[in-house]
Amino acid sequence: MIYQVYPRSFRDSNGDGIGDLRGVIEGLPYLSSLGIDAIWLSPFYKTPNKDGGYDVADPRDVDPMFGTVKDAEDLITSAHDAGLRVIFDIVPNHFSSEHIWFQKALNSLPGSSERARFHFFDGRGVDGNEPPNNWNSLFNGPSWSRVIEADGKPGQWYLHLFDSSQPDLNWDNPEVHEDFIKTLRFWLDRGVDGFRIDVAHGLAKDEILKDHRDPAGLTQALRLDLPGMSKEVRAGLLSDVPFFDREGVHAIYKDWRKVIDEYDGDRMTVAEAFVYPSSRQTRYVRPGELHQIFNFDFLATDWEASALREAAERSITEMNEIGASPTWALDNHDSPRLVSRVKDPAKARAFALFSQALPGSQYIYQGEELGLIDGELSPSDRQDPAFIRSGGADIGRDGARVPLPWKADEKYFGFSNGGSWLPQMDSYKNYAMDVEEKDPASFLNLYRSSLALRKQHAGLGGDSGITWHEAPEGILYFSRAAGFVLLANTTDKSIEITLPKPAMILLQSQGGASLTGSVVTVPANTTLWLQQ
Ligand code: GLC
User: Fold this and answer.
1) What does residue 391 show for φ and ψ, rounded to 5 degrees?
2) Which of 30, 384, 390, 530 supports an S-S bond with 396, CB 3.0-4.6 Å?
């Protein structure tokens, strides 16, 4: 069970309105009270903060906004003392344009070794006025920007799959490899337990000077939140992308794995990699490569029985084949929050209990355990480059990044005593931890109960198997070892089911279930954990 901390929005210790590492240290008692095993921190390195810290200007230093390297070291020690592992985020696809390497590249000549660390090319067309190819940025607009050369004239172009402030690194260059190994060691030497690898599928590029056959279609296909594209068309567009999931990435992770294995303890890596078809995910977790890969299926799956079962079964089967652990996530800093997405707290609670009963690792995004909703923000508050670059057509990800409410009656709901970098809505008061703590029916207490049970119950957690059973339409029904049974009713009507044996209820996502012997009534949009 891994809890994602988005440091900017977790807790602010110095009153500047921005969460920081000391704030995370202050929050450790809360985190360990949840019953999680590890925390993963989104980037807190030196950054101009054009993409929430995923634009790294120095991966071996901490941005003053977040603290110091000493704070990061103290955080690792304090988390370990509290029994929690610590995972850092590593961003190898790109640096910030403020990284010293890019600054040097800008001040060097075309063809220089400084430029060879990135993807600099001459443009096409008259005077090189057009970009070297037609690829789009994942944040909208072209994925190329043109620089001004020493003679004061527009010159070469550089590739950026994300914002223009995030130049892509050239992984064909050994210097890039060496620098990242140095970064891994820098943090491993300081005791970090692992890394989440950002855009892990993007590092190697093929045929960089060739146009894509359908750049607009590809952009559309990559926006999983946008309906209106058939499964087949989307699958076709996503299955062969010249800058994603190329063979070259695997050599990189084999090298990284060797470095990680040199260190004592149980260190791990998890890839953020969108790859299609999903069966290709297993290639990232082959022996000698990474440990886990995120499965984002649930972020785009409705609360609907057949889709959920299909997504769950597929991932379990694929990961089992290679002996890797499946992973599940309902939320993260890049997606709408679960309750806002499914538009119903009851469904969200039921969804969470369904997901948490599956074999493998669960990733929880801060605030998910409170059932927090997305912040409603005015355009002038929004900072996400996806929002800015699309002129607002893409609403962006800021809604899920609004700072957490800790205490209902304090200013900024206890997040900070000086401000909040994104405004919190008044309704966040109702989700404050101190309010939820006192309410036995709160999301927080549901998560605490479920996480505790996952630790105690021999049939939960771990990778022990799962057996699906026939069930009426709209019902998910499976059992696991040690008599564990899950029943989830995804319909809007309560349903009665007869189990093969008498059972008892361990946990329910909301009240209202009843059980007489082996006859269970599962209320609408409810998940039950049962002991049989
Ligand atoms: C990943 C991060 C996202 C970031 C992007 C570029 O998808 O999760 O927040 O914007 O990479 O680094």
Assistant:
1) 60, 30
2) 384
In whole angstroms, give the CA distance from residue 254 to residue 241: 22
54 lines ligand 1 (CB under 6 A): yes
Please give the share of the chain, as a percent, with pLDDT higher than 90. Answer: 92
Q: Answer yes or no: is pLDDT of 111 > 90.
A: yes
CA 65/CA 49 separation, integer angstroms:
10
Smallest CA-to-CA distance from 459 within 432, 442, 478 is with 478
For the whole model, what pTM was predicted? 0.97
- With a 6 A CB cut-off, is 199 part of the ligand 1 pocket? yes
Residue 191 banded pLDDT, cuts 50, 70, 90 = very high
Query: What residue type is 413 in one-letter code?
Result: F
Rounded CA-CA distance 263/493 in Å is: 53
Q: What is the DSSP string of 104-142?
A: HHHTS-TT-TTGGGB-EE--BSGGG-B-SS-PBPTTSSB
Quick check: 264 and 189 in contact, CB under 8 A?
Answer: no
272 counts as catalytic: yes
Distances (CA, A) of 357 to 115, 283, 363, 499: 49, 25, 13, 18
Distance between CA atoms of residues 269 and 87, nearest Å: 8
Pick the CATH number of 100-159 from 1.20.120.450, 3.40.50.300, 3.90.400.10, 3.40.50.920: 3.90.400.10
CATH number of 2-89+175-451: 3.20.20.80
Segments making up each domain of the chain, as ranges: 2-89+175-451, 100-159, 464-531
Yes or no: domain 464-531 corresponds to CATH 2.60.40.1180: yes
CA of 224 to the centre of ligand 1 (A): 15
Query: For residues 105, 107, 111 and 115, what is the CA-based torsion angle, rounded to 10 degrees?
Result: 0
Q: How many whole angstroms from 288 Cα to the centroid of ligand 1?
A: 25
Q: pLDDT tens-digit profile of 339-349?
A: 999 999 999 99
Ligand 1, residue 332: give the atom nearest the CA.
Answer: 8
Cβ atoms < 10 Å from Cβ of 148: 11
Indicate which residue of 12, 272, 318, 436 is catalytic. 272
Q: Give the strands of the sheet with 519-522, arranged side by side.
A: 495-498, 519-522, 514-516
- Read off the pLDDT of residues 459-480 as tens digits, 9 standing for 90 and up: 997 667 899 999 999 999 999 9
Nearby residues of 156 by Cβ (< 8 Å), 6 or more positions away: 110, 115, 120, 121, 122, 123, 128, 146, 147, 149
The two tokens of residue 22 are 């000391």
By most ligand atoms within 8 Å of CB, the mutation choice from 99, 162, 363, 384 for ligand 1 is 162
In the structure encoding, which two tokens stand for residue 120, read together? 């600099």
Q: Is 505 helix (H, G, I), strand (E, B) or coil?
A: strand
